[in-house]
Amino acid sequence: MEQGPVNLSEALSSFHALWSPHIIAQINDYDVRIAHVEGEHVWHAHDDTDEFFLVLGGEFNIAIRSDDGDERVVRLQEGDAYVVPKGVSHRPFSPGASILMFEPTGTLSTGDSEEGGIPEGVDKTTGHKLNY
Question: At 113, is the pLDDT very low, low, confident or very high (cuts 50, 70, 90)?
Answer without folding.
Answer: confident
